[in-house]
């Protein structure tokens, strides 16, 4: 579990904001949910498993923040609609969404089976689109205070629109689509006063970036020469970038895909 942060009860950058985080029970999603709550937001975390979501809620509550959990599968439209409705019913509105749920499907293109390929696209591409669809519809109901009706950040990857890797074709293809989807959503939603952007991390210090059989120490050794930065990003560093994109200070950022890979894809 991410170490708890004390909650800013004196307002905070995200006071009055209601944030939905998909994949909020672990890794980057949990760190970002905790970071938003630490700056005053009320947060709803979404995932398929109740237990990790409850741990995130507990982390936030223990630090004095406000959070709730909703179990949902983002590939199921009724689940996504219900999760967005739950957020609005519980906290009055939805103003920020971080569409971050994802998974890796590895293997050479010639070895992948069709069912796994389709499930991968369903999760990463269709799941992100379904979230965008229902989040944008909900955000349209918000009053525009001059800084817009809402902000959405989607998690793509540097493996996708920015670089490719053998053996990662399914993931690369799906994440490239998330980058493209984010740009289309950005130009469509801008007229509603809703900003949509993406982040494209390189390796982050979560189990997802470990190769089969690899320890975190092995990963550190592998990454030393793999980018100018020479290490994985921390999940808190990624969270901090998401918070910036979601903040009013990032007002001109629309359709941006923020690459956070320590220069690996340069
Ligand atoms: P993680 O800890 O495995 O988080 C993935 C989350 O997605 C889990 O909490 C999982 O919860 C949720 N999820 C998966 N399928 C779902 C579904 N159908 N419906 C709802 N929730 C679902 O991995 P992470 O490292 O934090 O990665 C988060 C995002 O960053 C992913 O999109 C990943 O592709 C991207 N990313 C990660 C890295 C990296 O190095 N870690 C690099 C670039 C991009 P449940 O299993 O409970 O549903």
TrEMBL record:
CDD domains: SDR_c. It comes from the Bacteria. One of its GO terms (molecular function) is oxidoreductase activity. Residues 17-226 form the Ketoreductase domain. SMART domains: PKS_KR. It holds the Pfam family adh_short_C2. InterPro entries: KR_dom, NAD(P)-bd_dom_sf, Sc_DH/Rdtase_CS, SDR_fam. Keywords: NAD, Oxidoreductase. Belongs to the short-chain dehydrogenases/reductases (SDR) family. This is SDR family oxidoreductase. It comes from Nakamurella flava. The lineage of its organism: Bacteria, Bacillati, Actinomycetota, Actinomycetes, Nakamurellales.
